[in-house]
Amino acid sequence: MITVRKLRVTKGPEHTVILSNVNLHVNHGEFVAILGASGSGKTTLLRCLSLRDKWDAGEITFKGVTLTALSIWGKFKIRKQCAYLSQQPELNQNKTAAKNILSGRFRTSALWRILTGLVSRNEHFTAYDYLDRVGLLEKAKIKAGSLSGGEKQRVAIGRALAWGAQVIYADEPISGLDPQSAARVMEDLRNLCNEHKLTVICCIHNVELAEQYCTRMMGLSEGVIQFDVSGRRLLSTEKNLIL
Fold first, then answer.
1. pLDDT at position 79, please?
2. Which tens digits make up the pLDDT trace of 145-160?
3. Which terminus has fewer CB within 10 Å in the chain: N or C?
4. Distance CA 200, CA 211 (A)
5. Exposure string (b/e) for 177-187, b if CB count within 10 Å is 16 or more?
6. Residue 141: pLDDT over 90
7. Burial of residue 203 (number of CB atoms within 10 Å: 0-12, 13-18, 19+)
8. What is the pLDDT averaged over residues 213-242?
9. In angstroms, rounded to a whole number, what is the distance separating the alpha carbons of residues 51 and 46?
10. Can you tell me the distance from the alpha carbon of 92 to that of 114, in angstroms, rounded to the nearest whole number?
């Protein structure tokens, strides 16, 4: 589904190498953890995969389509199939959880709908359904600004479902959360793969949670993928590579 070949990224006037030779392939429905220390290039990789950052060399393909060969409209259509979850979810803090869900579902609707926020009763029920899927039905009428960090992440996950995303790129979605909230977010992401057949690629620093919830773990260090394992816990030597 997603293939990266010899990806290279440099930044700044000194052309500091962030990613030097990244190669990977992710299949449909996988829950992949990208592990690495701060500054290892995890976020840069995720932003390139989601077409939010450019790269210097190499190739990324999505469902067999080479991203660099796409027109602006083609890239827009690809981005519609992907959702990017940052550490601080991009929610409207003054709107309720339900309306934030709807803003994802009807992003391409008529201008009047976006400006006025008018939605039908059936659309509200649809928003409640997606909130129920992430265990936040009781928060439907609460403004996003009043939700906890974990709840905001789960609203963002619900919005991705409503938007019809096929891939979730999650950049440190549990950073700063308490253990219980972090586990719930990881469980929701795993459910996206198991129940909704989405593909999730998640940058994360917590090895234990990655081992518990993810189907596959990749270690990023010195600009390259140092290991790629499935179906087992990491060895001590592998953990040392990403410290």
1. 87
2. 999 999 999 999 999 8
3. C
4. 15
5. beeebbbbbbe
6. yes
7. buried
8. 95
9. 9
10. 13
Cβ neighbour number for residue 67 with a 10 Å cutoff: 17
End-to-end CA distance of the chain: 29
Average pLDDT, integer, range 65-76: 90
Angle, helices 97-105/121-133, rounded to nearest 10 degrees = 100
Residue appearing with tokens 């009763």: 121
Q: Are strands 82-85 and 65-66 parallel, antiparallel or unpaired?
A: unpaired
Tokens of 93: 């803090």
Tokens encoding 38: 């701060």
Percent of residues, the chain, with pLDDT higher than 90: 75
Evaluate if residue 115 carries a pLDDT over 80.
no
> How many other CB atoms are found less than 10 A from the CB of residue 204?
24
Say if residues 149 and 176 touch (Cβ distance below 8 Å): yes
Whether the pTM exceeds 0.70: the reply is: yes
Confidence category of residue 120, pLDDT binned at 50, 70, 90: low
